[in-house]
Amino acid sequence: MFKIKNHAVKESFKTAYITEQNYQELYQESINNPDAFWAEQAKVHLHWFSPWEKVYQGDFAQGDVAWFVGGKLNVTYNCIDRHLPTKANQTAIIWEADEPGQSLIITYQMLHDHVCRMANVLKEQGVKKGDRVCIYMPMIPEAAYAMLACARIGAIHSVVFGGFSPESLKERILDADCSVVITADEGVRGGKFIPLKQNTDAALEHCPDVHSVIVIKRNGGNIAWKAGRDIWYHELAAKVASSCPPETMDAEDPLFILYTSGSTGKPKGVLHTTGGYLLQATMSFKYIFDYQPGEVYWCTADVGWVTGHSYIIYGPLANGATTLMFEGVPTYPTPARCWEVVDKHNVNIFYTAPTAIRALMAQGREFVSNTSRKSLRLLGTVGEPINPEAWEWYYHVVGDGRCPIVDTWWQTETGAILISPFPGASTLKPGSATKPFFGVKPALVDNNGQLVEGPGSGNLVITGSWPSQIRTVYGNHQRMLDTYFSTYPGYYFTGDGARRDEDGDYWITGRVDDVLNVSGHRMGTAEVESALVLHDAVAEAAVVGYPHEIKGQGIYAFISPMHDIEPSPQLEAELRSFVTKEIGPIAKPDILHWTPALPKTRSGKIMRRILRKIACNEFDSLGDTTTLADPSVMETLIKNRQT
Ligand code: WTA
């Protein structure tokens, strides 16, 4: 393997926007004079219809933060219209289909026309400013048009990942009270078809308030049709105008809701607003990826996740960049696909998740080395801690040792990257997200909420607001306060643990709560448990994560069956597909461990700490087990640890 070492700034990045010289200065300014700093950035990076009265107000205790108070703007004006005078014919989106050989080029002018048409279609369906629109789409350009069309007219989009089940889709539609769903007949991924319209039909059996389903024809497959509700997009789009004035939005008007998992209860609708979110997505994109005019940028995420929102759509387009949207998966038709796409479209900046890197690494380096990749200039990762071995492989094999790697830490709730190297300013350390972005003050606290000074480990918190911060949990403001602002009063609690080294660089170690991170997908253990116990054969279930070579974390489910149930391979297969049906394939347990009983305290609480140790094969550090109601349960569990 490669020797792991730190990497100083490369000669080719000495002229980056952010350099070793100006990072410190700008960072200090952003901390010492935040209002002046952000006001300046907001002027430089965005177009405002009218200026704000106050840069920032509010506090963490009430969770009533507001940025650029009273300022007016429109996200699509910033992402499209303002580029038209100089970039009408420049490529905005390159779309690469699942099947190699098929791709599309969408210029900024075309993007404008498509987005306006879809905005007009939405208006015709009665959608108004503030209404919620659910987007359940494959990775096709219409997904981008749909998001931007909502932003054009001030509707709030709620994108639901196309891999989610009808049940998950239903929950999200009901929670946000969406009146319209935009979907496609079928999605195509890795050569397989995903029945999106069929899933939508199933979800909508329980959503009486949805009056229109706008269907994009992706594949032409046979689908059921509900007259009066279902509409073919292409039929309506042909009849409407290709211009639509951008709605004037307040900086604090909502832009989107995106559901994400926490340690308890159902997924939360994280709400982001217009001005602060767009500013930080725009600015972080430019500075962290050091995006230079004319470059081709590719983020492999799905628009169903926050990475797709901020770094496929809003950040790149607000910068007038060329952003690549990929419909498929990195391993189809072969594990060389990503690098073939890089060569085909001359991609300069490539941003992906550690799980994809590990999966490709496991296939051997020939798939990489047979491609050129000479266009690549910068690499990025996101979504989970990257192990140094994967980092080194990415650096040496994919990047041929030429391209810096930005390991970007952030969350759905943070809206934009908060901790990351700047390629022109930071010494790269494999596995470290290094330093905070401008205006961001991370800190570590111990379990009592005491600040950890200097080098050390603790719970990662953020001190003070930043523009793209979560504003509320849709429909449940108290839940936001309870989840993020009450564990350590005065701080935003990330749910992550981290270490800070002698240089002040941060190393994110992973979640410290009951949230799993499986292949970079966030999932609450409680969600998987609720799905399992819905099955008639299951009496009780406890789900924990364990280290998984490719996925980062795998799902280990301890299950006690109903008294008359005999576990069998058939039942296991049935349970797995049951969870897939309830949540989606990403939540399918890797390991099922049948047990007559779960370890509980005398008051009946499941001792997850012990289950986590068993799943991780850490039998000699089980900790205090004296509070267990029946210690023999533990012995049996250890004896039967599944692999
Ligand atoms: C994890 C994805 C280590 C972390 C943008 C966080 C990371 C959760 C990194 C958020 C990173 C994200 N290093 N861990 N560079 N980036 N995470 O909301 O646990 O889907 O809390 O947002 O992913 O996941 P989410």
TrEMBL record:
Post-translational events: Acetylated. Deacetylation by the SIR2-homolog deacetylase activates the enzyme.
Question: Per its database record, what is this protein's job?
Answer: Catalyzes the conversion of acetate into acetyl-CoA (AcCoA), an essential intermediate at the junction of anabolic and catabolic pathways. AcsA undergoes a two-step reaction. In the first half reaction, AcsA combines acetate with ATP to form acetyl-adenylate (AcAMP) intermediate. In the second half reaction, it can then transfer the acetyl group from AcAMP to the sulfhydryl group of CoA, forming the product AcCoA.
Family affiliation: Belongs to the ATP-dependent AMP-binding enzyme family.
Q: Where does CoA bind?
A: R189, G190, G191, K192, T307, S519
What GO CC terms are in its UniProt record? cytosol
Q: Can you tell me which residues bind Mg(2+)?
A: V533, H535, V538
Q: Which gene underlies this protein?
A: acs
Protein residues bound to ATP: G383, E384, P385, D407, T408, W409, W410, Q411, T412, D496, R511, R522
- UniProt catalytic activity: acetate + ATP + CoA = acetyl-CoA + AMP + diphosphate
Q: Would you tell me the protein name for this molecule? A: Acetyl-coenzyme A synthetase
Q: Start and end of every AMP-binding enzyme C-terminal domain?
A: 527-605
Quote any Pfam family the record assigns.
AMP-binding_C
On the tree of life, the source organism's domain of life is Bacteria
Q: Which InterPro entries match?
A: Ac_CoA_lig, ACAS_N, AMP-bd_C, AMP-bd_C_sf, AMP-binding_CS, AMP-dep_synth/lig_dom, ANL_N_sf
